[in-house]
Amino acid sequence: MNKKQTRKMMITIERFSQLLDAYGGDAKRWPLEERAAALKLLEVSSEAHHLQQSALTLDNLLNRIPISSPTTALRNHIIAKIQKSTKPTKDAWQWLVEWLLGTTTLEHVLRPAFALALPLLLGITIGLNLTALPEIDEQQWVFEDEINLLALGPLE
Amino acid sequence: MPRKTVNTSDDALMQQIRLGDHHAFAKLVDRHLNALHGFAQRILGNSADADDIVQETFLRVWHKASQWQPKQAKFSTWLHSITHNLCIDFHRRDKGKTVDITDVELISPHQPTDSRQQEDVAVQVEAALQQLPESQRSAIILCHYQYMSNREAAETLGISISALESLMARGRRKLKKILQSQSADLLGDF
């Protein structure tokens, strides 16, 4: 273990006391990142041990408060309320975002890609169709011009 | 065909709930009802109000399922924060209904002495907990009873970890003070 790691594993008695003040005497409730250092201090410091015992007294008292479990009737009532309800409600924005981005990781990738590719494909298809229009010969143009001029009537 | 919700994570269940899956919702209720009911009961100090709060919490989960963002927080943290907010609203509506330890009938004459003493202590501690400011009580309940990590508890309350530690330390100090004033025997040499 290098010096940096050793320093990381150390905790002062002041910080240990703060931990007990906040989280109590049970090591399971101490912050994970400081737990190992705090337990190490407990092994060597009688003061730390005394502080922990004092904190455990309050913990034990807190543990004495009884708690009643929820009834099966409550559980069934909650489920029954939902059975009557339809699908969870969504606003228009959420609906649009979900439609565009999907709900799964795969959909998060595929749907936007598809949404971007769709106008591109549409443009290519229209472009190809325009270039593929049958060419009109010159004779037909002249004939159409004459028809148009007749439709306008004689000029005064 | 059996549904694949046996060992499904909370996040996966929420995805199914978003699509209106009642079975996934029932599974989620079964998984979290006990813990959530205990949390509400300890904040409010009674089981009947906790029933209402928990019911409302799960209804919100159903209706607001599309607002759940799995990457932002753990599901249980989100669930606890909904319950916590509902409890705060409940307290605001129901202000003044606090438990006063002097009003509590501590000893029932028909119970054996040991059992009565145990109950006395529990009632005193419960009443002391209810005397704490709501924020201190919630912080202690989340870390002590719900076994939340400091990060999760801080997220639930929408505060920093140092603020959470400060709330818990002040709360525990106040608890000791209240209990010592009630009965010196209770805490021994603090």
Describe the structure.
- The complex is a heterodimer of chains A (156) and B (190).
- Chain A is mainly α and 156 residues long.
- Among the domains of chain A are: 3-62, no CATH class; 92-131, no CATH class.
- In chain A, 72% of the residues lie in helices and 0% in strands.
- Chain A is built from eight helices and no strands.
- In chain A, helix 2 packs parallel to helix 4 (46-62).
- Chain B has 190 residues and is an all-alpha fold.
- Chain B folds into two domains: 7-97, RNA polymerase sigma factor, region 2, helix turn helix motif (Rna Polymerase Sigma Factor, Chain: A, Orthogonal Bundle), CATH 1.10.1740; 102-190, Winged helix-like DNA-binding domain superfamily/Winged helix DNA-binding domain (Arc Repressor Mutant, subunit A, Orthogonal Bundle).
- Chain B is built from nine helices and no strands.
- Chain B has helices at 10-18, 22-44, 47-63, 75-93, 113-131, 134-145, 150-157, 161-182, 184-187.
- In chain B, helix 2 (22-44) runs antiparallel to helix 3 and helix 3 (47-63) packs across helix 4 (75-93).
- The interface between A and B is large, with 41 and 58 residues.
